[in-house]
Amino acid sequence: MSKRERLLATLTVSVAVLLAFFIFIADPACKKWIDLGGDVESANARLLKNLKLLANKEYLEKEYDKYKQYIQKGAGEEEEVSSILKEIEATAAGCSVDVTSIKPKGTKSFKEYKKFTVEVTGEAKLNDFLKFIYDLEDSKKLLKVERLVLTLKGSQSDTLRGTLIIRKISF
What interhelical angle do 27-55 and 57-67 show, nearest 10? Predict the structure, then answer.
């Protein structure tokens, strides 16, 4: 082999070795290095967030204590419906609302919570209905009046007949 051929062969082998080194070693190592950098940044962000939460631990616990009374764990669906009906009846009795019918309308289950719906029909004066609605929405059961339909009981009466759709979200 001539000197020139040896030089070309050496250059060709050198380029092939460098190319193989780049493709099989250097490029994957760089990609791994970049991925690790991203993982480190992500872990750093989570760490900072957790440190902020720990710094606010007392405040968060106070806030949680305010609202934990509203969350009932472990109650079955029937027990929950029964509890809602009792709360509605007790509130109606305390507000002078004469409940003529109360019907559970069903339960819808979602991923994180359940939605209970109840239809209540009753008779009372306007002020008593307003107090009833206020007391329902202010109860510890977190009840919400979704719909209210009021009609006069009679043409000469100041008593109203009302139908309410009441819902409760349970976690």
Answer: 60
